[in-house]
Design a protein that fits this description.
204 residues, alpha/beta, 7 helices, 5 strands, 46% helix
């Protein structure tokens, strides 16, 4: 298990969670290092809402199995769309992703400040599909808005956590999404997926 130490020595952290598969190994690792996370689920980017509810319920299922606190932030997709206006056609890892991370982590920092958390971090940093530099930049931006909070810049891809993530995914039979949640990412994925030719009808 990866040895962890928080940057400020606090053993209480607000953990922004994007989904159960990405959160599970991180939560397990924190607990093994005597760090107690409170899980903050703030993902207004997820589309459609049915997808949001599926991912949220999977996250709750795992968090409750560990007897941890789960905070469900409001699902305000319209606000997220307004914040992403003009960035719809940006590629993955482009400026839209940075703004999306900043919005979600700013809400995390706000909650941390209002509920006496000195430290927050995010499971977004576990995904190899995301830019770690963008995530850390967004976290620093968010912390700067709320003095007294610190963003924990941890690379959650290291220390065997990716392998453990895949094990837990199978053990818990997690719903494992095929896109980040953003409708623009989903549409790009759909456009990139080749359409199979129709099968011949032998009855003709």
């Amino acid at each position: 298990m990866l040895k962890l130490q928080t940057p400020n020595g606090d053993n209480r952290v607000l953990l922004h969670s994007c989904c159960a598969p990405c959160s599970s190994a991180i939560i397990e690792c924190m607990l093994a290092n005597d760090i107690r996370p409170t899980v903050f689920y703030c993902n207004p980017n997820i589309y459609p809402q049915e997808e949001y509810e599926i991912r949220k319920n999977e996250a709750i299922r795992f968090v409750q199995s560990k007897n941890l606190d789960f905070i469900d932030a409001d699902y305000d997709h319209e606000h997220w769309l307004c914040a992403m206006h003009g960035l719809e056609d940006q590629p993955e890892r482009g400026s839209r992703c940075l703004e999306c991370f900043t919005l979600r982590l700013t809400e995390t920092a706000r909650y941390a400040s209002e509920h006496s958390f000195s430290l927050f971090t995010t499971t977004l940093a576990s995904s190899r599909w995301k830019s770690l530099d963008q995530i850390n930049q967004a976290g620093r931006r968010a912390a700067a808005l709320y003095p007294g909070t610190l963003f924990w810049e941890q690379n959650w891809r290291k220390g065997g956590l990716q392998e453990r993530r895949n094990q837990l995914l199978r053990e818990y039979a997690f719903y494992n999404q095929q896109y980040c949640g953003c409708e623009f990412s989903m549409r790009r994925l759909e456009r990139a997926t080749p359409i199979a030719p129709p099968l011949p009808d032998n009855n003709l």
